[in-house]
Amino acid sequence: MIFVRISGMRAMSTADPPALAFASNPMDSDGPAMAWAAVLPLSMPMRTVMTQILVVLFCQ
Question: Could you give the number of structural domains in the chain?
Fold first, then answer.
């Protein structure tokens, strides 16, 4: 069961819907999609924040 969740989180960390489809295909559960949905609210704002931090640090 932990592999199912990790595969969904990994797919969301790259924001790659085909990776989610690949993770969900061999399994008969919605675990990857549920993990994708759990990680989505955190990962999108973090990308923006991390990008802004890197720009401030390296473009001065």
Answer: 1
